[in-house]
Amino acid sequence: MSVDLQEHFDETIAHERRIEPRDWMPDGYRATMIRQIAQHAHSEIIGMQPEGNWITRAPSLRRKAILLAKVQDEAGHGMYLYSAAETLGAGRGDMTAKLIGGRQKYSSIFNYPTLSYADVGVIGWLVDGAAICNQVPLCRSSYGPYARAMIRICKEESFHQRQGYELLLTMMRGTAAQREMVQDAVNRFWWPSLMMFGPPDADSPNTAQSMEWGIKRHTNDELRQRFVDMSVPQAEKLGVTLPDPLLRWNDERGHYDFGPVDWDEFKAVIAGNGPCNTQRVARRKAAHDEGAWVREAAMAHARKNPERVRVSPEASS
Amino acid sequence: MSVDLQEHFDETIAHERRIEPRDWMPDGYRATMIRQIAQHAHSEIIGMQPEGNWITRAPSLRRKAILLAKVQDEAGHGMYLYSAAETLGAGRGDMTAKLIGGRQKYSSIFNYPTLSYADVGVIGWLVDGAAICNQVPLCRSSYGPYARAMIRICKEESFHQRQGYELLLTMMRGTAAQREMVQDAVNRFWWPSLMMFGPPDADSPNTAQSMEWGIKRHTNDELRQRFVDMSVPQAEKLGVTLPDPLLRWNDERGHYDFGPVDWDEFKAVIAGNGPCNTQRVARRKAAHDEGAWVREAAMAHARKNPERVRVSPEASS
Amino acid sequence: GAALARYCLALGDDALIYSHRLQEWLTRMPELEEETAIANIALDLLGQARMLLARAGGILGQSEDQLAFFRSEAEFRNVRLAEHADRDFAEVVGRLLIFSSWRLALFGALSSASDPVLAAIAAKGANELTYHRDYAAQWVIRLGDGTELSHARMQAALDALWPLTAELFLPDASALASVDPGSVHAVLDMVLAAAGLSRPGGATLGPVSGRAGRDGVHTEAMGYILAEMQSVARADPDATW
Amino acid sequence: GAALARYCLALGDDALIYSHRLQEWLTRMPELEEETAIANIALDLLGQARMLLARAGGILGQSEDQLAFFRSEAEFRNVRLAEHADRDFAEVVGRLLIFSSWRLALFGALSSASDPVLAAIAAKGANELTYHRDYAAQWVIRLGDGTELSHARMQAALDALWPLTAELFLPDASALASVDPGSVHAVLDMVLAAAGLSRPGGATLGPVSGRAGRDGVHTEAMGYILAEMQSVARADPDATW
Predict the structure, then answer these.
(1) Spatial distance between the Cα atoms of A181 and C241, rounded to a whole number of angstroms
(2) In this predicted structure, what is the pLDDT of residue C164?
(3) CB of D90 closer than 8 Å to CB of D150
(4) Which of A258, A309, B100, D120 has CA 20 to 30 A from C40's CA?
(5) How many helices (H) and strands (E) does chain C have?
C-alpha cells in the first residue's frame, strides 16, 4: 500500500499536478512544506514591523492610507499562509511558539531597520520585488493550497511593488534632501535584498530535493540573477546608483555581473546578530504574551455561549 | 504636667519662638502640621510632572538645562519637606501611601495640563509667584524644621520665578506665534493661580486656629490680593492681558479689584474632576509600585551587608 | 461657510487622531484577526478624516495635508477622547464602543445636513461606524463575559474611559448636529448588560476654564502625538510625496 | 579641524541622546533620591553635550542649538547604546555602568588631547563620569545581591544590553582616542563579581553593511527621539528662546 501511495505521489509530481491536503505524501515532503509555508507566514507577520514603523509618521495622508492598507494586507497574507500550513496538520499556535522561541526563521531582510520614509519605498521596490521573484514560481508549487495562496499573494505584492516604486519616483522628483534619502535607503537595502534569495547554490544542499518535489522551481543563484537583471534598468530610470562598483552588463552571458555578496553578514544575521533580530521577535512575543488573557476570555465566552457566538478557532492558539 | 506642657507651648507660640521636634505639642497642632507639610511635600513631587513634561522637548539646550535643574530642585524640596514631616513622627512611606490613595491632597494647580513651552514660563512666573506669596510668611512658621525648610525653598523658588519670567520676556520679544503662545498660557493659568490661595476666608473654617498656632500668618484672601497686586504690573511689563475684564485699580482700597473666581471649578478640581488629577496620581502610583522590587532589593542587600553599605532609611518606605 | 469648515475640521480631527491611536496598536494585537480588524477601522477613520479635512480645506483654501501636518496643537479641534492612549485591549475595544456609538448617532443626524458633501460623508461613514461599533461590542461582551480577569479588566477600562465621555455631549455653538446622551447611553447599556458590566458614573475630565478639545485645549498626550505624526512632513516642507 | 569637529560631534551626540533617555525617566524613579541622582546625571551629560557641540560648532560655524535641533537623523553620530530605551531600573543602572565606564576610559585618554578645549572638557567630564559610574555600580551591586527577583532582573538587563557594547570598541577612523575593551571589561568584571552577576558574551547588534551609529545608521528608536526632542524648536525656526 505504501508503495502504491508513493507511486501515486511521484506520478502526481511528475505530471505537474497538485498534491492536496487529503492526499498521501512522504513525511519529508510534509515537513519541508510546513517549514516553508510557516517561514513564509512568519515573514509576512514580522514584515509588518519595519513598514508599520512609519505609518504614524507618513508625510501625507494619502501615503499613510497606502501604507496602512499594505501592512493590513501583510497580516492577511500571514493568516492565509498559516491556514495553508494548517491543511498539513500544523497548528497556528505551535507555529507562533516556534517563531517567538527562535526555532523557525523568517526572511532575514526584516532584521534591518527602517530609518526614513524612503525605506518604505525601497522595501516596496526591492524587497517586494525580490519576494515576487521568489514567489512567482511558487504559484506552480506542487502543494495545492500553497500554490493557490501564492497566486493571490503575488497579485497583491505586485501592486505593493508598483506603489513603492511610484513613491520613489515621486521622491526623486522632489527636493535634494528627498533624493539623498532615497539613495541612502538604496545603499542600505540593496545587498540585503540580494541575500533574500538565500546562500549560493553551492551552499544550498536542500535545493535538489526541493526541486525534485516541485516545491522549488529555480535555484537561489538563478533567481538572484533574475532580480539583478530586472532591478538595474529600474534603478537607472529612478536615477539612483546601486552600491556595487562591479555591477556591469556582460554581453556574453546576457546578464549583469555583480560583486560578491557579504555572506559573513548574511550568516551573522541568520544567527541572530542582525541589527533588529531581537527587537522583531521580542515585539511579536510581547503581542502574543500580552494577548493571552484576551484569547482565553474569548474561549471562555465561546464555551459559555456555544449557540450564540462563533469565535474563530485561531482565537484558541 | 499636661497643663504645664500646654502652658509652655502657648508661651512659645505667644513669644513667636519656635516649636522643635523634641517639644511637647497638642495633638491637633501635630496633626495639622503633619498634614500641612505633607501636602506641601506632595505638591513639590506632583509639581515635577507638569514641568517635567517639557524637558525632552525644550527648544534650546540652555532652556533644557534650566528646566531640568528646576525639576531636580523640586524633587529636593519634596525630600526636604518629607524629612521635616518625619520629625513629627510621620513616615515617608505612609505619606506616599496617602498621596497615591487619594487621602492627602496637593496643590490643585498641578491638575491642569501644560500644553506649550510657554506654560513652563507661566508656571515659573504665576504659579511659583503664588507659591512664594503663600510661603514667605511660612518662613516664620511656629514649627522650627518647617520654617527652616521654607527659608531654603523660598530662596530657590524666587530663582525659579525669575527664570520663568525671563523666559516669557524672551518669548514676548520673539515671533508672533511665541507671543500668542504666552498669552494663551496666561489665559489658562491665571484663574487657577488665584485658586492656589484656597477658598475665600468666609469658607475657610480652619484659618483662625491655624493663625492662632502660628502656622498660618495671613488669610487666603489677603494673600490672593497681594498676589494680584504684584502680578498686574508684571503682566503690563510683559505685554500680556490678564483674562479678567473686571480687573482694575481701586484708588480707594489701594488695591486692584478683580472679578469673581469660579469656585465651582475649584471644588470640581479638588474633588478629583480636574483635567489631570487621575493622570498625576496614577503616574506617581506607577513609579512607586514599579519601584517596589528595587526598594526591596536595596533593603535585602543592606541586611546582608550591614557594615559595608549605608542605604538611606527612606529606601525602605 | 466658516461654521461648516470649523465643524468639518472638528469631526475630521476626531477621526485623524483616533486613527493615529489605532495605528500605534498595529503589530501589538492579541491575534492576527484583530490586526486586520483594527487596521481596517484605522483605515476607515483615516478615510473619513481625509474627506472631512478636504471639505474644510475647500472652504479655508488649504489642502488636507496642510491641515493635518502644519497646524499647531491649539488649532486641532478633536475631543480629548480621540487622543487617549489605550493601555490594553480592553481599553481599545471599550473606547471604540463609546466613540463609534456616539459618532454613529452624530453621523445619523448629519446625513440630512444642509451641506450635501457633509451629508454624503456622514451617510457613507455611518455604514463604517456601524461595523466598528459591532466589532467593539462583540469584544466588550466577550471580555465582560469571559474570565474573571477579563471581566475585571473590561470594567476597569470602562471606569478609566468614562470621565472622557462628558465632553462628547457638551453644548457646542459650532456644531451642526447634536446627539442626545440618553440615546447613546441606551446603546451602551444594551451592550454592557449583555456583558455583565456596569456603566460607570460620576467623575468627569474637567475642562480648563471651560475650554476642552473642541476649543483646542487638549490633554498632555496631544503634543506627543503631533510631534510624531508631523515630524517627517515638517522636516522638509518643500518635499513632495 | 574637520576630524576634531566630527569627533566632538560624536561624543556630544552620545551625551545629548543619553541625557534625553534619562530625562524620560524623571518622575518614574523608584525613590526620590533616585529622581535627584538621575536628574543630576542627565544634567551633567547635557552639560558635556553643550560643550562638545559648541566646540564642534565653532569649527563648523553652527550653534549648539542648530546642531541639536536642526540636523537629520543620519547626521547624528552617537553610538546606538546611547539611544536605547531602558525598560526598567535594572537597565537604567546597567546601561549607565557600561556607558560611564567606557566614556570615563575615553575621557581619561582625551584629557591629553592636542586640542586644549577638548582636553579640558574631558578632564572636567571625567570627574562627573566617575560619580556616574560609582552610582551605577552601587545599584548594580544592590540589585545583583538583593533579592532573587532583583538578581534575575539585573542579569536580564545586562544580557539585553550586552549586544550594544560591541559598537563601543569598533575601529573608528575619526576617533582621536581609543579604549582597550579589556580595560573596560576589567572594571565591569569587578562590579559584576561583587554583585554575583556574570558578564554576558556572544551576541552583538550587527551593523548595516558595516555602518552603525558613528556612521549615522541608528536603531529605529532614534527617529522617535528626534521627532520629540526637535518638535518645539522646529515648529517655529525663527523663534528665540
Answers:
(1) 13
(2) 96
(3) yes
(4) A309
(5) 8, 0
Show the cell assigned to A61.
495622508
Residues of B in Cβ contact (< 8 Å) with C84: none
Which are the contacts of B133, defined by CB distance < 8 A and separation ≥ 6? B197, B223, B226, B227, B230
Grid coordinates of A228: 539583478
Q: Is the dihedral of CA B305, B308, B310, B315 positive or negative?
A: negative
* In contact, D192 and A172? CB cutoff 8 Å: no
Average pLDDT, stretch B43-68?
98
Q: Residues A75-129: pLDDT tens digits? A: 999 999 999 999 999 999 999 999 999 999 999 999 999 999 999 999 999 999 9
- The answer to whether B and A touch (≥3 CB pairs < 8 Å) is no
> How far apart, in whole angstroms, are the C-alpha atoms of residue C57 and residue C64?
6
Contact residues on chain B for D142, CB-CB shorter than 8 A? 297-298, 301, 309, 311
Q: Name the minimum distance, in Å, from the CA of B266 to any CA of chain C.
A: 10
The answer to whether the CB atoms of D206 and A273 lie below 8 A apart is: yes
- By Cβ distance, the residue of A56, A175, A300 closest to C236 is A175
pLDDT in tens, C217-236: 999 999 999 999 999 999 99
Question: A262 contacts in D (CB within 8 Å)?
Answer: 209
Rounded mean pLDDT of chain B? 93
- CB contact under 8 Å between C208 and B112, yes or no, is yes
CATH class of the domain whose range is B3-305: mainly alpha
| Least confident residue range of A305-309, B301-305, C25-29 | A305-309
Ordered DSSP codes for C90-159 = HHHHHHHHHHHHHHHHHHHHHTT-SSHHHHHHHHHHHHHHHHHHHHHHHHHHHHHHS-HHHHHHHHHHHH
- Asked if A296 lies within 8 A of C146 by C-beta distance, the reply is yes
Give me the pLDDT at residue A1, please. Answer: 53
Domain boundaries, chain A: 3-305
* Interval D160-196: pLDDT, tens: 999 999 999 988 777 888 899 999 999 999 999 999 9
Interface A:D, Cβ pairs < 8 A: 56
Pick from C162, D209, B249: nearest CA to A275: D209
- pLDDT band at residue B207 under the 50/70/90 scheme: confident
Interface with D, mutate which of C24, C228, C236, C238 (most D CBs under 10 A): C228
Could you say which of B115, B187, B268 has the minimum Cβ distance to residue C223? B115
Which residues does B120 contact at the CB level (< 8 Å), separation at least 6?
Answer: B51, B54, B58, B63, B67, B114, B164, B167
Chain A hits for D203, Cβ within 8 Å: 272-273, 278
Q: pTM value? A: 0.95
pLDDT at B210 over 90: no
Q: Could you give the percent of chain C with pLDDT greater than 70? A: 100
Do the chains contact at D218 and A188, CB–CB below 8 Å?
Answer: no
Nearest C-alpha in C relative to A169: C241
Q: Which long-range contacts (CB under 8 A, 24 or more apart) does A292-295 make?
A: A292/C30, A293/C147, A293/C149, A293/C150, A293/C153, A294/C30, A294/C31, A294/C89, A294/C143, A294/C150, A295/C30, A295/C31
Q: What is the pLDDT of residues B90-110, one digit of tens each?
A: 999 999 999 999 999 999 999
8 Å CB contact of C209 and B188: yes
Please tell me which of the candidates D72, D74, D208 has its beta carbon nearest to residue A112.
Answer: D208
CB contact (8 A) between residue D209 and residue A114: no
Q: How many Å from the N-terminal Cα to the C-terminal Cα in chain A?
A: 36
Indicate if ipTM > 0.90: yes
Subunits that touch chain D (at least 3 Cβ pairs < 8 angstroms)?
A, B, C
What local confidence, expressed as pLDDT, does residue B313 receive? 41
Burial tier of C22 (Cβ tally within 10 Å: 0-12, 13-18, 19+): buried
